[in-house]
């Protein structure tokens, strides 16, 4: 292996991994927001924003159509944020 792989990569890799994990939740929220507004994935594609956009029309009759995707999305984003914070604190 070269000098870069032996000396530079061990110093750069943990910070790059931490940055990637910390940015991933914000990217997920952005993609979901765009698809909710109709600028990204379109039905019948399975996407967080598409599920919420379709479920909002049935919110008064069937609130669970919006509750479960929202709750699942929230828990996933929170878990990824906590994971990124734990990597950052190392």
Write down the overall geometry: elongated
Uncertain segments: none
The class by helix and strand makeup works out as: mainly alpha
Our measurement of the CA-to-CA distance between the termini, rounded to an integer number of angstroms, reads 27 Å
Strands, total number: 0
Strand content: under 5%
Order of helices and strands: HHH
Q: Give the proportion of residues in helices.
A: over 70%
Overall pLDDT confidence: 89
Helix run count: 3
The largest sheet is: none
Rg measurement, Å: 18 Å
What does this structure look like?
This protein is mostly helical. 76% of the residues lie in helices and 0% in strands. The protein is built from 3 helices and no strands. It has helices at residues 3-37, 48-55, 64-88. Helix 1 (3-37) packs parallel to helix 2 (48-55) and helix 2 packs antiparallel against helix 3. The chain is elongated and about 60 Å long. The model has no long low-confidence stretch (mean pLDDT 89).
